[in-house]
Write a structure and sequence with these properties.
By secondary structure, this protein is α+β, with helices and mostly antiparallel strands. It has a single domain, classed as NADH Oxidase, CATH 3.40.109.10. About 40% of the residues lie in helices and about 15% in strands.
Length: about 180
Amino acid sequence: MNETIKAMEERRSIRKFKPELPAKEDLQQIIEAGLYAASGMGKQSAMVIAVTKKELRDQISEDNRKIGGWGEGFDPFYGAPVILIVLGNKEVPTHVYDGSLMMGNLMVAAHSLGLGSIWIHRAKEEFEQPGYRKLLKDLGIEGEWEGIGHCAIGYPEEDAPKAAERKDGRVYWVE
């Protein structure tokens, strides 16, 4: 089987990560794969903020927990030491789709390098808050950006779950 298709079929969301930080070279390869995601009219409207600084990672986790309504002590990133935050340029009509395609590439690339990943929502709500708009400003990022998702990455603590059977009735051929 083709290695790319195999990675797509085998990748699963991981919900328990080891605390060790993946190698920066691996993270750079994952981000590069994300940058090559298809985008509407080739506008490349999505970008990534790579968070490996533990204090910021923990603050994002806490804010995400509050938005999600979970109890104190819950980590919505399941202990993953890296958060790749995907943002879409609001000026581009396809920014949500472009960011979603980037998220897919990030997750498949992580799997292909032996890392686990999971898509965590609520980036949209985070980046509507003043503190996150300030983060963008502090990073020198201008414009209007919408949070698309967080790609939490790390070494899996346990084996990936088995794939659910694929549902019938989702393909129709017109020949």
